[in-house]
Amino acid sequence: MQPPIYLDNAAGTRLDPRVLDAMLPYLGECYGNAASHTHVYGWRAEEAVARSRAQVAQLLNCAGEELIWTSGATESNNLALRGLIAGLAARGRRVLSPRTEHASVLAPLRDLAARGQIELGLLDVQRDGSLDLQAFAEALRPGTVLASVMWVNNETGVVQDIAAISAICRARGVLLHVDATQAVGKLAIDLSALDIAALSFSAHKLHGPQGIGALYLRREVRAHLQPQQLGGSQEQGLRAGTLPVHQIVGCAEACRLAQLALPQERERLRRLRDRLWQGLSQLPGVFLNGHASAHAPQILNVGFEQLPPLALLEKLSPALAISGGAACSSAQAQASPVLLALGRSREQALSSLRFSLGRYSSEQDVDVAIELVAQALRQLRSATAAAPAAGEEKDCPMKRMRRRAQQRAAQTLGVGA
Ligand SMILES: Cc1ncc(COP(=O)(O)O)c(C=O)c1O
User: Fold this and answer.
1) Which of 17, 82, 126, 153 is most buried (CB neighbours < 10 A)?
2) PANTHER family from the entry (predicted)?
3) Where are the domains of the chain?
């Protein structure tokens, strides 16, 4: 049986074998603690961490000391938002963010607002997912201390104009945090040229290991960040805990490889995305979720009119590993708040598919994906009533997809369902 075609790189990417090679010594003979200053094992680990810091800093064009290692973008976002809001409390308490941010930004902000620690302004986006810059500037009312804007949206691929947004923030004396999880390694980022106070990312979105990422914190802002995890003095006292040296080395190697290939890879991914859109846009009832030109090279989100909720995603499973505009909580599929914020109806959101490309995606993957979608669509459109099979209505469609794939795998292995 052919393995499913993987087009879900915005969720996670395959570890590059060169990254694994770089990590292996630090899972073997180099086992020292980077905070041990009294022997060669510790010194070696400390040197590896310092080299890694310099490599990541090169990709972002910042100073190594401006990077704090974290367990990934969720922690970086929480640290930046909670830490800066606590440090800036005496200056003001208004914080601004678009509605289309990732949950790891919106959840801590909503939590702080519910506790009365901030006044939260959530901004609408335009139908193409972009921020109206004038509305953004007007919303930075006196008392606003922090804005948090995602560079590349993880669901739609829409790219915000971070240069313009950072200039607006600078003019108003507001600090800007950027969730760049889907941008690092995909777009050219020059932090020396932008007024960004803090920036988050995760290594596993760029063919590095899971469980490691960093928070860039501009030197002048450091004094405003209150640490959220206390203990040892690692990371200049801003994030306590023994450093995972193998993951840090992997993160740095992933950044080095991304930087080496960035312009060519960006073009290659853009061509693949164009090819995918070219093929899908010929199909009946299709629409684009996102911006026609301000989009990242690796993400394409498309919807299909008048289909039963999640029917297309279910039909494509398990042949295509992609994601849809929904999350399952209990039996009811919840439409993506990002797609709803773009003005899509619940039905449109639940018939949307996100394709995301990576280093190992090929033209053949794209062509097969187009054919599979076309076939599935023909079947769904010709079915008069696409009611789910009896007895399955109470199930979340995603759970159903998983159960069927497991049953199929069990049958292939001859162990029965
Ligand atoms: C834009 C964005 N921010 C934050 C995160 C959270 O990253 P992690 O799960 O690595 O902490 C993700 C993950 O999908 C993301 O896409």
Assistant:
1) 153
2) CYSTEINE DESULFURASE (PTHR11601:SF34), CYSTEINE DESULFURYLASE FAMILY MEMBER (PTHR11601)
3) 5-11+262-384+395-412, 17-259
